[in-house]
Amino acid sequence: MNIPRLIGVLSLPLLGACAVLESAGGPRVTVDVALQPVDLALGDTARIAITVRNNGDRAVSVGSAGCNMDFFLSDPDGNAYTPAERVYCTLELRAPVELQPGATHRIDVFTTGRVVPEGSQGEPIMLPPGTYRVRPVVSVHSGSESAVVVSSEPLLVTFR
């Protein structure tokens, strides 16, 4: 079994990023992300658009990498945070979306800087002011292959 390769490509400085997933003879999937604004006050809303494109020759299913977790935040020290707006898992899970070759799927999400430290069961907190990485994460499955998590190069957002 060949292990998929993840290739990150910055497509627009601070406004967009892209990643490509390739598996031997299998699907080719890109993940693009756009973020606006990139500099804002804590509590204001940063809107994130994640677009998944099937560039391969067969259908793939795209879903969340976790309980509707479409992106994660991390600080320069590598501490990871889950956006508090997405942290509570209800039974309203999104079903995977099937993408035919050439099709795209857009996921619109947001963050206000209100987070739960990754792995914590604590109450949500506001991030300290600073610059954080926003990394989109989606799960891709094709045929009998195991699902793989696909991401892109992170974008930066600054909360003041």
Provide the structure class: mainly beta
Q: Helix amount, in percent?
A: under 10%
The CATH class: Mainly Beta
Content of β-strand: over 45%
Radius of gyration: 16 Å
Q: How is the main sheet built?
A: 10 strands, mixed
Element order: H for helix, E for strand: EEEEEEEEEEEEEEE
Which topology does CATH recognise? Immunoglobulin-like
The total beta strand count reads 15
Shape: elongated
Overall residue-averaged pLDDT value:
76
Low-confidence sequence ranges: 1-16, 18-26
Which CATH architecture would you pick?
Answer: Sandwich
**Structural domain tally:** 1
Distance between the termini: 46 Å
The number of helices is: 0
Describe this structure in words.
By secondary structure, the protein is mainly beta. It has a single domain (5-159), classed as Immunoglobulin-like (Sandwich). The protein contains no helices and 15 strands. The strands form two sheets. Strands 4, 6, 7, 8, 9, 11, 12, 13, 14 and 15 form a ten-stranded mixed sheet that branches. A five-stranded antiparallel sheet has the order 1-2-3-5-10, with no helix packed on it. The model is unreliable at 1-16 and 18-26 (pLDDT under 50).
Topology:
Layout (H helix, E strand, L loop, with lengths): L4 E8 L3 E7 L5 E9 L2 E2 L5 E9 L5 E5 L6 E4 L5 E4 L13 E3 L4 E8 L2 E4 L7 E2 L3 E12 L6 E4 L3 E5 L1
Parallel strand pairs: 4-15
Antiparallel strand pairs: 1-2, 2-3, 3-5, 5-10, 6-9, 6-13, 7-8, 7-13, 8-11, 11-12, 13-14, 13-15
